[in-house]
Amino acid sequence: MPQATSLPAWHALQEHHKEISQQHMRDWFEADPQRFDKFSLHFEDILFDYSKNLINETTVSLLLDLARQAGLAEKIGAMYSGQKINTTENRAVLHIALRNRSNRPIYLDGRDVMPDVNRVLEQMRQFSEEVRIGIRRGYTGKRIRDVVNIGIGGSDLGPYTAVTALTPYIKSDFRPHFVSNVDESELLDTLDQCDQETTLFLVASKTFTTQETMINAHSARQWFLAKARDEGAISKHFVAISTNAKLVQEFGIDPDNMFEFWDWVGGRYSLCSAIGLSVALAIGMERFEKILDGAHAVDEHFRTAPFERNIPVLMALLGIWYNNFFGAESHAVLPYDHHLAHLPTYLQQADMESNGKGVDLQGKPVGHQTGPILWGQPGANGQHAFYQLIHQGTKLIPCDFLAGAQSHRHLGAHHPTLMSNFFAQPEALMRGRTLEQARAELKKEGYSGEQLEKLAHAKTFPGNRPTNSFLYRKLTPRTLGSLIALYEHKIFTQGAIWNINSYDQMGVELGKQLANTIQTDMAKDAPTTGHDCSTNGLINYYRQLL
Ligand SMILES: O=P(O)(O)OC[C@H]1O[C@H](O)[C@H](O)[C@@H](O)[C@@H]1O
């Protein structure tokens, strides 16, 4: 596959960019009352409004050409048919199989993976129901009240984001916890809230070798045994979620208490696998399966919708437009739905670990920018922190705004107020405020002369800042599954066009290796000398502080 930069559509977009960058969205909206109809789409109850972007019909058509010329259709086909598109690790990428709610088989090396998927779903169903209704209890016969998921990265962020998102559905006498960091503070603060007799630990790790998770799991085991004093009781309080049966057994977890997943599920794409067990325990398996339904519906949309009406494809192309032609370095995700507070963090791993790559599929340096810096936090909080820079700073930051029309609980004017901000911010970012408008407003307020002039410039907003708005009825399990799948396929599409492998994460390794050698050095009595002088200096000063 040729580099994206050598495709004819790339050159055409470079030329087109010159023309678009001279124009203002405000004028387009004034000239064309149909703009919203042209540039918005519905998927079930989710409205995707992309009309407030720096695009016209030619832009969209050139971006679609780019997708076609980059072989996107073939690449989607390759993923769905189980080809080993994770070429560096020689693995297929089949998270779509985890939520394949159709009767269609999905083959990997000539074998249908669906019986395995369904077997584990059945195991999750049985286990979560037994815990929730109290058939499975702790070693003293008490009901399980606290569930602690111990995992990091993909074995933490997905279920943590989902459990937070679906807080209104959590069983009232049940408390889910997530421990990821190796910093003992997190584990100890959590254990302080728990009782050994009523706590269930889910040790979640695809590889079962991740340092942070293993240390936390061993410490949790010790904490448990300090009270239970019976190794036999472990089977009632520890389960594992992993692809590595051997290491799970070595840790002392009964194979019957292991929930399997497979090397064709990337960690950051594993929410719909057994990694979602904490979600199933918290909200019930039936509702967990609604997440799968929502994700599957989007999988089908992505697979079958023509590119011009394919939401993840359009999300990806708009991202590429800003990333590669406007030089935007970051992308903000701004949920006006407090339950989605962890979505930006979740998407940081999904997007930045997938597309933070500098070589292409042939192992050659890419000749263009790849994945953006993804960041964000819930509105309205962000408005009082970093929106100033988005409105008037010197950087272009495309933003996604997300909101549910209905909230789960009602209190006075809270929700309408939140929603008014959700509508106002993208409008203000698009429209801005001209110098003339600022002058007129100040004049009305009684300003004049030099002071008016100075203030008018400070109060001018350039506008023309691009946003997407996602508006759905209510944050249900199904909607959550759909939103996550939309972003997953956006990431896939961008990786496909950039011709990179979105499914390995070699960049995480070096720091891990160095940490291991440094820990050995730290254990020695002599001052550390084996590193650069800065690292030596830091380690040696740390010793003095102990
Ligand atoms: O699930 P695990 O094998 O414990 O891995 C947990 C995480 O750690 C690694 O460092 C990877 O960068 C992540 O992609 C992964 O999700």
Automatic annotation (TrEMBL):
Any one of the GO BP annotations: gluconeogenesis
Superkingdom classification of source: Bacteria
Pfam families: PGI
GO cellular component entries: cytosol
Keywords: Cytoplasm, Gluconeogenesis, Glycolysis, Isomerase
Molecular functions per Gene Ontology: carbohydrate derivative binding; glucose-6-phosphate isomerase activity; monosaccharide binding
Pathway assignment: Carbohydrate degradation; glycolysis; D-glyceraldehyde 3-phosphate and glycerone phosphate from D-glucose: step 2/4; Carbohydrate biosynthesis; gluconeogenesis
Active site: 353 (proton donor), 384, 512
Enzyme class name: isomerase
Catalytic activity: alpha-D-glucose 6-phosphate = beta-D-fructose 6-phosphate
Cited InterPro entries: G6P_Isomerase, G6P_Isomerase_C, Phosphoglucose_isomerase_CS, SIS_dom_sf, SIS_PGI_1, SIS_PGI_2
PROSITE patterns: P_GLUCOSE_ISOMERASE_1, P_GLUCOSE_ISOMERASE_2, P_GLUCOSE_ISOMERASE_3
EC identifiers of the protein: 5.3.1.9
Intracellular or extracellular location(s): Cytoplasm
Database matches in HAMAP family: G6P_isomerase (MF_00473)
Family, as annotated: Belongs to the GPI family.
The protein's role, per its UniProt record: Catalyzes the reversible isomerization of glucose-6-phosphate to fructose-6-phosphate.
Protein name: Glucose-6-phosphate isomerase
Organism name: Methylogaea oryzae
